[in-house]
Amino acid sequence: MMFDDLPTLDRDALFSQLASGGSGVMPQLVVLCASARLAQHLHERYAAWQAQHGCTVWPTPDVLTPEAFLRRLAERVRPCRVLAGQVLLPVLSAAESELLWQRVVAETRHEAPLLREAEAARLAAEAWQLCHDYRLPLPLPASSPDVERFNAWSGAYRQHCVRLQRIDAAEERAQLIEQVERGELPVPADIVLAGFDDPLPWLYRLFEALRAAGVHLRRLNPPAHAAQIQAVVAPTADQELRAAAQWVAERARTDPQARLGVIVPDLDARRADVLRIFDETLCPALAALPARHGERPYNLTLGAQLADIGLVHTALALLRLCVEGLDWAQASMLLCAPYWGASEDEHLRRADIDRRLREQGHLHVDLPLLQQLTLHDEALQARWQQLCARCRAHGKADPGDWAERFSVWLEVAGWPGARPLDSAEYQAVQAWRELLRTLGTFGGIVGAISASEAYVQLEHLARQRVFQPQTPPVNIHVLGALEARGLDFDALWVVGLDDERWPAQGRPHPFIPFELQRRVRMPRASAAVALHWAERVTQGWRCCAREVVFSWPAMDEDRALAPSPLIHAEAAQATARSVDIFAPAWRAAARCGREVHLPDAYAPPPDKARVIPGGTRLLGDQARCPFRAFATHRLGVRALEEPGYGPKPIDRGVVVHRALETLWRDLRDQATLLALVPSELDARIGAAVDEALEHLARQAPQRLPPMLHRLEAERLRALLKQWMKIERERPMFTVEQLEGAAAETPSPDPDPDPPSVSFAGLRLRIRPDRIDRLKDGSRLVIDYKTGARRPPPWHDGRPEEPQLLLYALLESGVTALAYARIAAGAVEFEGLAADHGIAPGISRYSDCRDTRDAGSWDALLGRWRGELENLADEIRRGHASVTPKHPRQSCRDCHLHAACRIRERFGIAVGEDEDAP
Ligand code: SF4
């Protein structure tokens, strides 16, 4: 049979014939379409045709794909065959077939270990399908080790099918065609073929069998518009897509009934970009929604992976939590997800659990841990308990049992949540249930499996399943290269026709001999075959609309691109398209009126009677940046912790502070220290360090596992020993005050609130680390430092480290201030005093370059008072402008970039400020 010689008819004639007869149980006129999309398209066009002819109801015409047609023929004869006692083997679903291929590949693991078994199984399944499509007999000529391996796998696959008493879909299709050839299946009198430009060999055989069975075969003429074709070159691929979207929007505005198409040949790779740009251009209200749910005015043929749909992503995370636990980042996402729980706002309560598990530093999160963290929330606690009880004692079970148990676990967790589902979410839930049903069918292939194996299978299914929610019919379609076959539009734009992407490069299949692929003309077998195939497709685009635009990007990053040679004639007349790179919503906002500036440098002044949290850090942050002080201390904005391995710098600081406090509460003065023999001192240091580390281990056990606990204890003992040597060598002193309480207080509350003090109209709670009484009765204020060295605040104007200065002003008789640096490589005092001789590292103010101009210690105190009162005055007035003292440097350790927009304001790229000196 010469396919091209078949009689043809056009669409109107086809619709007239469909209207005049042929539907019901065995319609005599059937239309076979090259794709399900074309079948859908013909149904829609037929409905429009009927409506044009004044009909309101009509029988559904028989328009379907060849695969659906064959299955239907088989279903018709099934009852008779069952009655006749024939054994009808059930057909493997696509998922079962894939699983079987995975198993077959895994079984040969010992012969040749593969890095990517799943990919090998996918390629083997693809080669199997190609062999059936092109009617290549198996085993294939063994031209390479890869082909030999595929031959072995396909033999094993067949044996498994026999053992399972199942049949593969491709083999069933071949058997059904044989039955048509033998006249064992009832066939219609008349079949019209639509969209088959160059039928695959299996289709050719089917059409031949139908013709031999007496079917009158005809071809539907493809759309043949005498199109106006123009070519457009855009600066970049992104702008090319935007130009196409704007062109569609404009056409749809002028003619809402027009059928518009946009073809993106590599749509699967560019799906996210297409979705973003078309949403921004055609439905900006939807683009602004975080979940982007809702009906779109356009149809994108390629769906997303079901596993990436928020609701299903949450279900998978919940199951994973039950089966093996989650890492902290996954757990954080799950806790804040809105798709589970007993009430709509439960995720807000769960966000607090997220905060706590981050603060405690848990790297791995499981159900018992969540139970512990939820002690204050009875409802949530009860749910975790119930889940724990259900998930205990996993063992092995049939995948069908796992599917049921997974459903129950999700129900207990309150999935899919308490809020009403929209249409897309409802369809996602249905797709998920279908997935569980599919998992339930795997028992025959894999037998009893563990919960984690069942979870892995389910997750794989969700990754493979493409989810495309049904939407009402629309007139704008975005399609891949092949999907436009047989369709017609009023106007069509084809993007991406540059010389690198169109025609696509040849990429022969590794499991089929290359020579064989070339001989049967598989589309990617060679550059020549790919070119021929692309020529046919391009020619089809030229005829499927009255107006056609071909476009390509001029540049790909820094590489210049030329138009595809397949549009050579059109490209010679190309026009450069200027593109509005701003989304219409932004343009509309910009058109709304004049720019209005709202100065917001001042927040409401703080309540004078109330203590502002933050202590001396409030003044320090005000010095660094007024907005930082306002957001941190008045709004209470804090960055969430990110759990990591080992103690954080702040933990190390807290441990040193606590150990020294314990030590000095015990010793009280230097005389007692000097009286200790070395072994006694070592023992006291050891006890203080142990107590401080145990306190940290209780607070954040995950950050101090036993090995690190031991190492940290050794490190701290050595450091404190060095420090006590310095304390021994100082002139005589008594420790008078520790962390805000008198040194003689026997057992301090671990976190007592220090009393509030008033400074320049602000109420603050401050807590000096330590105050020593010196031999002459004056006082030395000490601040322990365990982090990186920073410039001292002696002459700063806006002191970022104001604590020592403030203590000097608020405490009486202070004649010296010092940082006690206790860090690896730096164990020393650094300070300033009214006179010499306090301790090594504490200089007389008149010897210090920054302070020698003060004239006297009292004058220096007066200068510091002025500086701190200025900062306090700003806070009292609510000054909260975004004015970092040193842009970049001040912002480096600040977590408020997203709130203050400093990067946008100063044009700092993300990460750039982190490298600032
Ligand atoms: S990031 Fe910089 S500008 Fe923004 S609040 Fe922090 S310190 Fe101020």
Q: What is the strand and helix layout of this fold?
A:
Elements: E1 8-9, H1 11-19, E2 29-33, H2 36-52, E3 63-64, H3 66-83, H4 94-107, H5 117-133, H6 145-164, H7 169-181, E4 190-194, H8 201-212, E5 216-220, E6 228-234, H9 237-254, E7 260-263, H10 267-282, H11 284-287, E8 298-300, E9 304-305, H12 310-323, E10 326-327, H13 328-335, H14 346-359, E11 364-365, H15 367-373, H16 378-391, E12 396-397, H17 399-413, H18 423-440, H19 443-446, E13 449-450, H20 451-464, E14 466-467, E15 476-479, E16 489-494, H21 514-520, H22 527-543, E17 545-553, E18 555-556, E19 559-560, H23 568-571, E20 575-576, H24 584-591, H25 616-624, H26 626-634, H27 649-667, H28 670-675, H29 678-699, H30 706-729, E21 733-738, E22 741-742, E23 756-759, E24 762-765, E25 770-774, E26 779-785, H31 803-810, E27 814-823, E28 826-833, E29 842-844, H32 857-876, H33 897-900, H34 902-906
Parallel strand pairs: 1-5, 2-3, 2-4, 4-5, 6-17, 6-20, 7-15, 7-16, 8-15, 16-17, 26-27, 28-29
Antiparallel strand pairs: 9-14, 10-11, 12-13, 18-19, 21-22, 21-25, 23-24, 25-26, 27-28
Helix pairs in contact: 4-5, 4-6, 7-8, 9-10, 12-17, 12-20, 13-14, 15-16, 16-17, 17-18, 18-20, 25-26, 27-29, 29-30, 31-32
